[in-house]
Design a protein that fits this description.
Helix content: 40-55%
Number of helices: 27
Strand content: 5-15%
Number of strands: 16
Oligomer: single chain
Structural class: alpha/beta
Radius of gyration: 35 Å
Length: 649
């Protein structure tokens, strides 16, 4: 290729990628090393960047006149030493082209109010002297073109200018007006434009090879658009060129919103409200939150183990919220995250709102590599993933989740700590050591649970202890706190609640008081109590049947809402009818109720047998019922069962 053709091609690439990099700067807001660069980026953020409009390489159309003015942009690039300076005649040509574009815009009812020359070249002595006269009151004499030679021969170029403007003086005056509005962005190298695009690509997690392909798509898209007319260089256009999805968000954690991280954080907060938590102020148990938070910083896997309704899910979500400003946080329900691509599908859904299907469905290792690329230099694990309710996943559907847990754990053990897993599960055993051992054998590929146990964190969550109940009262029911203290219901020195009979017994307490004690120590029921009006809370503490009925109704309403949120095929009235049928059906054995005979069979009618089994799992997860052994259950709160029976003992 001859030098002229090569230089022309390089100039076009400089223009194309320079324009695209302007849009990239408006997204990344990086390397704004001059007032002019900052001004242009601000204008692009407030308006539109259009390629090949009004005869200019680019035009920034500001939407709000109060925030700026429409800007015409020309790119001038040189690769050879002989072309690295701009002579005065070329500067005048640039002014001429800007003025022509200004008149074209006016003919279309638009305006060009400022002009920017973007170049890797410098002004020579004569052109620099002319540029310095941009603010002069008089038209610089060097702008007035000669119409004839000293011999009197007319100059052809001057004749065209005179025909266009009417006179050489009129042309000079017009060019002087443009000169007064001209700024020059010097020393913008081709490599700098490419680097700016690469920064944005990196924030999306693209590898160098993928960026080279994306750069080709940018150039191709601009060339194709040049044939048919102006192309608006939008963030969506640039993102589509880079990653194929126009609304894909960046993976860099500390980028300005909106990012995948910020959207993930909002998703986690929404999950929190779906868990029937009103707001952050209703979250207590700070000691447990801090304990999980500490484990997240030490181990690649952290188990939260406990009975139904003890707050495992809320605790995991609260830690996600706490970490969401520094990491990418993701919440997965165990029962719906059973396939091998569950994590990549979840990440795709928050990376792109409407075009997630256009993003690749990639292995977990590739996904983690992308997040690592986007956050080069950050040493902490970049993902915090909460998989909730592993006990609710049927044995036959656990393979995909086991694969995911194994991949992330193995990667962390090999020294690549990309992610931390929080796993919540009901305790499969009454003893803490045995519970963790059984969970490791169920979910990890190992015959040595003791070895794995030393490499993971585990926290066992139960009902409120005395300090937690006092904290709950101070934070959420401060107006009855003194009454709760007066009742002297504390069991100082007692062991953590178990599944045995009367686990909340306090010396001297009546059966009704014991029932109240038990209900207040249950986190799920405490939330209902805290929402009661002041008078109802006081009367409930005194054992009022009417107030306990109100608590039971609120508790059941929360359970039903949570269930239909998680299982959209179930209907509220069917759930309520089934629970009532279960409550009024005489048990085969009041002391030991069986899942099939005392739950599933009475529920059939409003529900089918499969739905009844689902409802049983939900009731166990929420704490509506408890299991003393697998498949053997009892009502957690007697007054809730009474309410379902219609108030009859």
């Amino acid at each position: 290729m001859v030098d002229g053709a090569r230089n022309a091609l390089t100039g076009y690439l400089y223009q194309f990628l320079g324009i695209a990099s302007l849009r990239a700067r408006a997204i990344t807001v990086s390397d704004l090393d001059s007032e002019l660069a900052c001004d242009l980026v601000t204008s692009i953020q407030d308006g539109e960047l259009v390629h090949e409009l009004h005869g200019q390489d680019a035009v920034i159309k500001v939407q709000h006149a109060s925030k700026g003015e429409n800007v015409g942009i020309q790119y001038k690039h040189a690769k050879t030493a002989s072309r690295m300076t701009i002579e005065r005649s070329e500067l005048i040509d640039i002014l001429h082209v800007f003025d022509r574009s200004q008149r074209e815009a006016q003919n279309r009812g638009e305006s060009l109010d400022r002009f920017v020359l973007v170049t890797n070249r410098s002004l020579d002595e004569n052109s620099q002297a002319l540029f310095q006269k941009k603010t002069s009151a008089q038209v610089p004499p060097e702008l007035v073109i000669r119409e004839a030679t000293q011999a009197g021969r007319k100059i052809a170029g001057a004749k065209k200018v005179v025909e266009e403007y009417g006179s050489a003086a009129a042309a000079a005056a017009a060019w002087h007006g443009v000169l007064g509005k001209l700024s020059i962005w010097r020393d913008l190298r081709y490599e700098a434009a490419v680097l700016e695009l690469k920064k944005l690509a990196t924030q999306h997690g693209l590898t160098p090879d993928e960026f080279d392909a994306a750069r080709g798509r940018i150039i191709s898209s601009i060339i194709e658009a040049t044939v048919v007319g102006p192309l608006t260089i939008t963030m969506e256009w640039l993102t589509e060129c880079l990653v194929n999805a126009p609304d894909a968000r960046v993976l860099r954690l500390n980028s300005p919103d909106p990012t995948t991280r910020s959207v993930a954080a909002a998703t986690v907060r929404r999950k929190m409200t779906e868990s029937v938590v009103r707001n952050d102020s209703s979250l207590i148990r700070r000691r447990l939150i801090d304990e999980v938070w500490s484990m997240v910083r030490q181990f690649p896997v952290v188990w939260i183990i406990g009975d139904g309704g003890c707050g495992k899910s809320v605790l995991g979500l609260q830690v996600l919220i706490q970490e969401s400003s520094a990491r990418l946080t993701m919440f997965l329900r165990g029962r719906t995250a059973t396939h091998a691509n569950c994590l990549t599908d979840a990440l795709r859904s928050i990376r792109s709102e409407n075009h997630s299907y256009l993003l690749p469905q990639e292995p977990v290792a590739k996904l983690l590599d992308r997040v690592r690329i986007a956050n080069n230099g950050l040493q902490v694990p970049l993902l915090l993933i909460d998989i909730d309710g592993l006990d609710e996943v049927p044995e036959g559907e656990r393979h995909g989740l086991r694969q995911l847990i194994d991949q992330l754990f193995t990667r962390a053990r090999s020294g690549t700590a990309d992610a931390v897993l929080i796993l919540t599960c009901r305790s499969p055993s009454r003893t803490k050591t045995r519970a963790l051992e059984r969970l490791i054998l169920e979910w990890f590929d190992t015959d040595l649970p003791d070895v794995i146990a030393g490499q993971i964190g585990a926290i066992h969550v139960g009902d409120f202890d005395d300090d937690e109940l006092r904290e709950a009262a101070r934070v959420l029911a401060h107006d009855v706190y003194s009454r709760i203290e007066e009742m002297n219901l504390w069991r100082e020195g007692a062991d953590e609640a178990t599944l045995g009979a009367n686990p909340f017994y306090v010396d001297g307490a009546s059966p009704r008081e014991m029932e109240i004690i038990g209900s207040l120590r249950h986190p799920a029921m405490w939330g209902v109590f805290a929402d009661l009006p002041f008078a109802d809370r006081l009367s409930a503490l005194s054992g009022s049947r009417a107030s306990l009925e109100t608590m039971a109704e609120g508790f059941l309403n929360r359970f039903v809402r949570k269930t239909v949120t998680r299982f959209t095929t179930l209907r509220e009235h069917n759930i309520q009818a089934s629970l009532a049928a279960i409550a009024v059906t005489p048990a085969h054995n009041e002391a030991v109720r069986e899942r099939q005979g005392d739950w599933v069979q009475p529920a059939i009618g409003p529900l089918n047998s499969n739905e009844a089994v689902v409802l049983y799992a939900e009731a166990l997860s929420y704490g509506l019922i408890r299991e003393d052994a697998p498949g053997r259950w009892r009502w957690r709160h007697g007054f809730v069962c009474d309410h379902l029976r219609g108030g009859h003992e």
